[in-house]
Amino acid sequence: MGWKYPLSREGQILLELYDLTLAVNSGKKKPKPSPRPWQTGQRINATALPIEEARERLAGRGMKQEGLA
Fold first, then answer.
1. What is the pTM for the complete model shown?
2. Residue 26 falls within a domain, yes or no?
3. What is the pLDDT of residue 49?
4. Cα separation of 25 and 10, whole Å?
5. DSSP string for residues in 28-55
6. Is residue 53 part of a domain?
7. Which of 23, 33, 54, 64 is most exposed, with the fewest beta carbons within 10 Å of its own?
8. Residues 6-32 as b or e (16 or more Cβ within 10 Å = b)
9. Cα–Cα distance, 15 to 28 (Å, whole number)
10. How far apart are CA 32 and CA 24, in angstroms?
11. Rounded to 10 degrees, what is the CA torsion of 34, 6, 45, 22?
């Protein structure tokens, strides 16, 4: 079958944390981000689901959304 993603979600987050740490500690120089095995601009949490519908689904599962506009 194969994997749906070339990296686990944890691996993706670790790459992001590494790049952020490098950027913070690089001073005025802008470091080149680590290469990603997916298209540029693709986000982990990107969805076409409208926010209202997402909140309704979460509420249906018993999750509260306190403090959200």
1. 0.47
2. yes
3. 79
4. 22
5. TS-PPPPP-SS-TT--TT---S-HHHHH
6. no
7. 64
8. eeeeeebeebeeeeeeeeeeeeeeeee
9. 21
10. 13
11. -20
DSSP three-state, residue 21: helix
Residue 55 domain flag: no
Q: Within 10 A of 36 (CB to CB), how many other CB atoms are there?
A: 15
* Domain with 22 in it: 1-32
Q: Is residue 37 part of a domain?
A: no
Question: Which of 4, 35, 1 lies closest to 18, judged by CA?
Answer: 35
* Tokens coding 6: 């070339």
